[in-house]
Structures
1.
Amino acid sequence: MSRLFSLILVIVFASEAVSALDFCVADLKGPQTPAGYTCKSPANVTVDDFVFSGLAKAGNTANLIKAAVTPAFDAQFPGVNGLGLSIARLDLAVGGVIPMHTHPGANELLVVTQGKILAGFISSANSVYYKTLNKGEVMLFPQGLLHFQINAAGVTSVAFVSFSSPNPGLQITDFAFFANDLPSKIVETTTFLDDAQVKKLKGVLGGTN
Amino acid sequence: MSRLFSLILVIVFASEAVSALDFCVADLKGPQTPAGYTCKSPANVTVDDFVFSGLAKAGNTANLIKAAVTPAFDAQFPGVNGLGLSIARLDLAVGGVIPMHTHPGANELLVVTQGKILAGFISSANSVYYKTLNKGEVMLFPQGLLHFQINAAGVTSVAFVSFSSPNPGLQITDFAFFANDLPSKIVETTTFLDDAQVKKLKGVLGGTN
Amino acid sequence: MSRLFSLILVIVFASEAVSALDFCVADLKGPQTPAGYTCKSPANVTVDDFVFSGLAKAGNTANLIKAAVTPAFDAQFPGVNGLGLSIARLDLAVGGVIPMHTHPGANELLVVTQGKILAGFISSANSVYYKTLNKGEVMLFPQGLLHFQINAAGVTSVAFVSFSSPNPGLQITDFAFFANDLPSKIVETTTFLDDAQVKKLKGVLGGTN
Amino acid sequence: MSRLFSLILVIVFASEAVSALDFCVADLKGPQTPAGYTCKSPANVTVDDFVFSGLAKAGNTANLIKAAVTPAFDAQFPGVNGLGLSIARLDLAVGGVIPMHTHPGANELLVVTQGKILAGFISSANSVYYKTLNKGEVMLFPQGLLHFQINAAGVTSVAFVSFSSPNPGLQITDFAFFANDLPSKIVETTTFLDDAQVKKLKGVLGGTN
Amino acid sequence: MSRLFSLILVIVFASEAVSALDFCVADLKGPQTPAGYTCKSPANVTVDDFVFSGLAKAGNTANLIKAAVTPAFDAQFPGVNGLGLSIARLDLAVGGVIPMHTHPGANELLVVTQGKILAGFISSANSVYYKTLNKGEVMLFPQGLLHFQINAAGVTSVAFVSFSSPNPGLQITDFAFFANDLPSKIVETTTFLDDAQVKKLKGVLGGTN
Amino acid sequence: MSRLFSLILVIVFASEAVSALDFCVADLKGPQTPAGYTCKSPANVTVDDFVFSGLAKAGNTANLIKAAVTPAFDAQFPGVNGLGLSIARLDLAVGGVIPMHTHPGANELLVVTQGKILAGFISSANSVYYKTLNKGEVMLFPQGLLHFQINAAGVTSVAFVSFSSPNPGLQITDFAFFANDLPSKIVETTTFLDDAQVKKLKGVLGGTN
């Protein structure tokens, strides 16, 4: 029976290609496309392409925001390529904050696994939605909208955040305004911030012009 | 021949439904779905559902930003529902500016039809891309990224901006930070702006807390 | 300034519809569509539509599989509607197992938050990918492929699983074969299982015929 | 065991909604959306929603084109709603022809099940691809491109055509030009056809103006 | 006139790229992407890229399941690449059966062209939908759900099955469980099948461990 | 602070890949995929990839249709690759006409910026929708449907047309029927046009056979 079954198997799986689109592990050395990276040959794929260990330890929060974001996006975890999903770990030490930011390419779903986090987002209609989340609670942040997370516990808080894309992008407003060479004059004209404020934050964040 | 042809016609177009998905003009009184509004019955659709005259005249720029955005999104122009496209008109008087903002739901393509516009966007990598555009020049602003437009002419400038969604959304950073009841303390913690700066702009834009 | 700014605001946000597609919180009493539920009116949406507390406590594992799956899919957590994301919590007591199953509608990404889990999936090419995952490790399970999770620790293990759809579906193979009225004869013909085996499991799982 | 398993079952399938998106059988009396019809309640769905018998008998080819198209699109076969697939049957009597047409909403895949068919399409680059297909042969017609089928056998030919949409649409060029009230003057200006030719075909196909 | 028309033609079709996305015939030697294979140059495409003759003759049913599946997926029929469609031929000799399986990547639509077929599927809610189909009848099998086909005629039955993807995948449950090196212990723990049953089918299907 | 912030920046933007999918400027020398061209390395992208100047001047209307279409599709404007948008400029001299055509791959949105244009389309149900548009008025043309534009002013008219795809395709009916080697006999059989009419237009447009 086995041999005859196999005949069918041979017909149906005549090409490696048949199984390739079960998944498309990124070939990070290949070109990118609007739909993601080209695929590693299925013949070379192992279970380790589907497992990521980089979120097992805490990110380094010894910085001024007392927080760390550790991504498992396609560039770090090639298995997510083409699957419409990725994940990251947030570590927020006491006093830690993830500054106002957006993900241009994905919706986000956060689950607190340690501590308490004050999290919120602002809609296109400028409505504000925020709440303090306890361990095990989940919150959504729709694609492209400004949001933030602040540690609300007296201990380090941890969360895992899933995204609806293997490459959600990340635009931190302060970095976009102050950490590059966009002329201060343009920043001021388009944000109504005072010149002194712009210059101060450009100084802190390493921006020029 | 006509009668016999018509027999086929009757079979093929037996249901109004067949033609409905050529287009799906929004029934603005119906419920919305993740894919847009429910469709107006094709029997009630006329050419006027596909034509919008609201962009023919200039928006009112007699305001402090000396600029106006006139949208033809699904809520104003129900014909775009489900078609992955919409449009708006920008009027920028002398000194006019469209402040830093994002469209969470669409890419944007701007064409200048009068005057000159200095336009730019900032990528997730904090790179800045900006240029002064002359009449007839086109510029892209990818989805969810911060961007701005400033009149660069000594006269009123006008542009039409197309979007890759019937409802691109619009989040003006200043409005998101300062024009609602998000507590100043949270704004400051998540933006590193000074308290005085936050309070000043909350005052100007009508924010509270 | 505030008043004049607001004029623009009024033009741009003339319709509630503009902000609606930032998100589309499910109206669970409305009809479903191929793209999900119809949307609750944005005017009635509060932060609680974006927060889910049901995963904060452990599922009840006092059953023979010594395991529990607690979903936060659209039917439980209406905020995920239309966002291409959902989440569930797995609790695996000592000896616990999530039996072979598929999610017809989504890719899955698991992160272990307590204990150790032996997890694996089988591809269309019948290749097997499995590994024992420690706390903080992440594993992918591509859409529609058979997979399983087994507690590999001497204590209760916990994981959060994210999905690339608000409604991933769940088909447990044993339930599909043995927990309904599909005639034993058909089950045997299409699975090559022995009659005694089919009858035994139909008995255990409440199937008939 | 059955009872305890069922506990899980109850948790996981707590809502009818969970299974609903396995499929979304069209409620033809409900509204349409850009993604298709609203769904019939899963509780009322039976196997007959997934089976269509209307293609079992030949269409009536006693007409001047000696051909018939029998569709199983969403309006005829509500089970295809939301599934990205539909099907139709072509009957071509001796001398039969399906005139030049496009499907604005779907790619098409034809398989000949009786006789021989000369079929072809024209690309955007005006290249022509045509061939005579024998029984069992398959041909593709990309979305939106002009194509035709002509009986090439001395007997009736039959084919089944699948589409990549539950509602592919159908625009027969002759009907679009000549079977409505589009003024002859406009037809002539935009097609370069002679006035006599336009008037003749308007007459045959029942067009006016 | 021709020459002047051609001037426009030259402008509009200045690049080969314009016509490329009418279709994207797979370059099977190129890399794959999450959206399919890279495209063969349109200049090298001929009608034979859009025609497939491999389904014209019956598959070999001289095996124990007395059935054959002959696919025209992207790997066999490169023209379907990127078109969201593919097709296969089923041959079921007397007593033939296509065992329980899923297509992780596509919905399926079957049309019987010879004989009678008993076909069915099982939903996420464990409901069973099955029926005996006569020649010309059509049945749907939603993506990722277990389904089967059994010859119900005293003669060979034939069907064509269309899929909503150029690469639907195929996971035969018995092959996934018993035709690889997944340890028997894991199979038993995750399926509740008896050790003897698992060992027996592993023996038949060539599995190890 | 800057240095410590930068530590986070380094973690989050560890790979160039993270920012790549903000946009995917086409590498026109690379292969195409069903989702578009492969991406130019983000490191080599400049603002000029997002700006297109080719629509700033009028197309040459010194031809028999007295009209010109100047496209900014992906082949001309690589920045639109993957963004679901493109644009073109229409110039219609006095008496100018854009003949009946379809875009197989995109919806279209036209805005008149000079003069007056009589524009219309025909639905799958053969309904005609047409109107004379003034400067600043906008009209929609759904994907794949036949449409046309005719200058309705005593001066040159100009419009910008946006598309819901970086590569909408363009099939001009007359060119498809008469400007290639499709045999006259087939054209006549599938369009019901008279032999003299077909031969005449083949002559004008350079067709053969």
Note: Chain A touches chain E through 31 residues (CB under 8 Å).
2.
Amino acid sequence: MAETNGAPAATAAPGGVRTVACVGAGVIGGGWVAHFLARGYDVRAWDPAPDAGRRLRGLVASAWPALTRLGLAEGASMDRLTVTGTLAEAVAGADFVQESAPERLDLKVSLLAEIDEAAPEHVVVGSSTSGYSMSEMQVKAARPERLVVGHPFNPPYLVPLVEVVGGESTERWAVEWASEFYRAAGKQVITMDRELPGFIGNRIQEAAWREALHMVAEGEATVEQIDLSMTAGMGLRWAFFGPCLTFHLAGGEGGMAHMLDHFGPSLKSPWTRLEAPELTAGLRDAMVAGTDEVVAGRSTSELIEQRDRRMIAVMRALAEVEAEEAAEARARGGEGGGA
Amino acid sequence: MAETNGAPAATAAPGGVRTVACVGAGVIGGGWVAHFLARGYDVRAWDPAPDAGRRLRGLVASAWPALTRLGLAEGASMDRLTVTGTLAEAVAGADFVQESAPERLDLKVSLLAEIDEAAPEHVVVGSSTSGYSMSEMQVKAARPERLVVGHPFNPPYLVPLVEVVGGESTERWAVEWASEFYRAAGKQVITMDRELPGFIGNRIQEAAWREALHMVAEGEATVEQIDLSMTAGMGLRWAFFGPCLTFHLAGGEGGMAHMLDHFGPSLKSPWTRLEAPELTAGLRDAMVAGTDEVVAGRSTSELIEQRDRRMIAVMRALAEVEAEEAAEARARGGEGGGA
């Protein structure tokens, strides 16, 4: 029985999915396979590459120790992967289909039409595309209403984020169902109500990346400096507090409102090649109200305490991994030297 | 004895500094005070606010538990803080001065001239400015050659990064000395060879921030979605692998070269409002060579193993903090309820 308003009666409940089909088994598709297996699903995978099955099993096996450390779902097993000889065999009997073909529009269009043809009409299909809108991709599908974007981040078996958005011909129930399903499968989901090139995460990542490329192009910074500015700087905060909450704290007791009112003029500074938007009263109020939701009643001193605790936990965790790796390298060196 | 080429004979070795003066003791200046105390320095602080001493000691005390968890240097003590009544008393006898006044150019110019007047000429002075160049700020100082920018990230007592750069009248030895000193004081340092508005880290941060503001202004994303896209997505990777190393891995075995050759055209995609630079052969080669330095001989499979291990360590560390906080809240609830 469907739990999502408007879904066909035959559609599984998002939390009741047992079998997931993965079409395309490269780095992203294979990462999805590993994720779904680790969450206890049966997975049926298909990829047209001649050697796909062997490579996919290798990818899953190499991710499995990490997934085991992170905690497998009950009954999760690599043995629950079936690699099929045809696309139709993969999607027949699946409760959900994840498409992860290479990023070529013509390929995505025809593959999604093929999946649509082969999969029962009550089954939702998610595409891993990072570059195309579902409106562009669903044009040849006979039942485009159940096609959504479910955009993961690399590697899909570790990064929690999935961005879900439909196309012009997608029905609302499919977007809601997919969002609920990904959550049930252990993901953190952003459900977008409109299509946007790059979705949300990649727009932010791409802005940072383009500024970095400009700096290297102009000899203003080296690759090493750019990466260090992230890993020794913003990245340590962004692992747990996003850019808005970070700037809320930069505003002290006055928070985001003070930050915008006080530092608003710095938006006009030439600190990046990206022009800032006009800081209208509407934008200011939207930022303050939105940040209030994220803050959810926490005081500045509570946020500072939470930030400090998390930053120290992250830094200590990373230092421990480095110490472990160094010890392992010494042990290997010892073996090698026969000491 | 100075270890840095060209430094005056009376300048302390960067690793031999015992006393640091902090001028300005707000959030940033106070954060520096906490950091230097935790690293075992004597700190002399001055701030013109009437209540500055009390507030500064409060700030240090609230940071101290975090710093203790992170690990104090031998002999580190909050008692080694002296709050002085005048700027001259703070900087007299200091081996290094950190200026952290509010971001107003006229104030910075006159304060740096005052510090320059009061501090022995062999002492290097670092400014925490995030917005001004040292060339703009050093114009009224009699001995501008020892004035540098030492730009921290909030909170300075936790975030390791400091960006060091001189102005037109700064001598090279002072930039080198400051870089060595901050490293000796436990920081990770980017030494820039030219002035650049926003330095390096803030340019990347500001590009991400402006793209986020545009999205909110246009109703394309909410504050909550933007922050979640970071903390459930890129931020978890950026805590340990910067944007360039992340994209190197996205290129698979072919690394950065493959990524640029294959996905280069996506630089033209409207994934952000920031125009990309032309991907010339020179830029491509600079990115590949620079990334090679960061990779430092690690194979793709080694990098994947390192990434997975770190990501899991970060996610587990953050989950542990959340579990601790929830347990503490329950305990407080229990006390409150008298159960």
Note: The CA atoms of residues 3 and 13 of chain A lie 5 Å apart.
